[in-house]
User: Which sequence fits this backbone?
């Protein structure tokens, strides 16, 4: 399942509009790549690109105050920091 993240307005760059949350999308690519997420005990959110035959790659990282909500597949194992 793809991963969708709502960011706090404070997490946007100055060039972006400052009203409301921004949606970030990490879309799966059938057969080759899927995206999963995990949350560090500090509250930081990590987005992982998962390939069937390769190591997991950190695709995105958001500090504890930068994200409001996340939807998608939660990585329950193998995501040690």
Assistant:
């Amino acid at each position: 399942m793809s991963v969708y993240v709502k960011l706090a307005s404070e997490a946007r760059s100055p060039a972006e509009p400052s009203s409301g949350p921004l949606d970030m999308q990490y879309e799966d690519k059938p057969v080759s790549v899927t995206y999963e997420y995990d949350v560090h005990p500090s509250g930081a959110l990590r987005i992982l690109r998962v390939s069937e035959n390769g190591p997991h790659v950190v695709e995105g990282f958001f500090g504890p105050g930068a994200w409001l909500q996340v939807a998608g597949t939660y990585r329950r194992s193998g995501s040690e920091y």
